[in-house]
Amino acid sequence: MGWIQQIGQQSIEWLHTQVKTNHGRIVLLGLTVGLLYFPLWIYDLVIRSISGSTGLVLISCAALMGLFPLWQKRQELKQLTASEEDKIIGHLIILGSVAIFPFFRADMWAQALIWLFIMAGITLSTWGAIFFTQYPLTTLLIPMTVYTRPGIIAQGTWRFLMPPNFLENIMAAVSTQALQWMGQAATAQGRFITMPAGGAVEVAWRCNGFNMAVAMAVTGLLLGIFFKRTRLQIARLMLVGAAVGLIFNVPRIMLMALAHAYWGDRWFEFWHGSWGAQIFVGMLFTVYYYTAMAMLNRQKRSLREA
Fold first, then answer.
1. Contacts for 33-42 with beta carbons within 8 Å, 24 or more apart?
2. Segment 126-137, tens digit of pLDDT
3. Cα–Cα distance between 206 and 152 in angstroms, integer?
4. Long-range contact list for 184-190, CB < 8 A, 24+ apart?
5. Rounded distance between C-alpha atoms, residue 63 and residue 58, angstroms
6. Residues 150-184 pLDDT 10s
């Protein structure tokens, strides 16, 4: 319990120091918004993780990897000071973000964006613009943690560029072909898979493998950064991760089609629900982990031979 008391005492001392200056009071005002946003952030993150989302793992890893360089160089960080121009701009960003925050309490994405601006304002007014160039890893990773659904931008881009149900139709066709190879009389019509024994199963957006592919691509990015690989090697890890996510989605669709046709609604809901999703996510991470480590080891041997 001693370390808890020590942290509590240091926090109180830090608060007393902050309230003595205008900069400190503005920073505390911005942090108050973070405290208001945090319960919604953690609640959505946990609920989505229970439903099979990989967000909790990926965001936790991104946060740790982004904050670790700051801890390593905490003494150097104390030497950074913001110029008067940086302080003014940072304070304006914080105060403007705090002012508009109450008007966006119904939109989580807007709250996340406001919190990101506040963190940028605090950073700029405390350490100056040089922070963003001296700590590029933190600058890259921390913004990925403010929103519990980091793949939302990728989803919007995909839907804008691709025809409606493009990936859903492909997944339905590939899964149907695989079922036929198993001897099942399955047929595909668009995004629907029809089994004579159980009717049709729809491959909806949440079942098309896109989110799994994005999650594995982000995992590849984090692994590449952690093991300090080159940009080309990181790109390969991300591409392989996306491919594994899409390929792994095919047996998941097949299993749900079989469950719907032969095992009844109970088993279909199990594999379609949170427990089934978590089982598949666990298997997916395991397969990709060994695949990625094999790639990293091969890259390491190639460097040694070179």
1. 33/97, 33/98, 33/101, 33/114, 33/115, 33/118, 34/115, 34/118, 34/119, 36/101, 37/111, 37/112, 37/114, 37/115, 40/108, 40/111, 41/112, 41/146, 41/148
2. 999 999 999 998
3. 12
4. 184/258, 186/257, 190/165
5. 9
6. 667 778 778 888 888 899 999 999 999 999 999 88
Average pLDDT over residues 224-241: 89
Nearest one of 142, 149, 213, 203 to 176, comparing CA atoms: 203
Question: How big is the chain by its Cα radius of gyration, in Å?
Answer: 24
The Cβ-side half-sphere exposure at 13, using a 13 Å CA radius, reads 6
pTM of the predicted model as reported, rounded to 2 decimal places: 0.74
For residue 141, give both structure tokens: 């990773």
Identify residue 268 by its one-letter amino acid code.
Answer: F
Point out which residues pair with 202 in neighbouring strands. 192
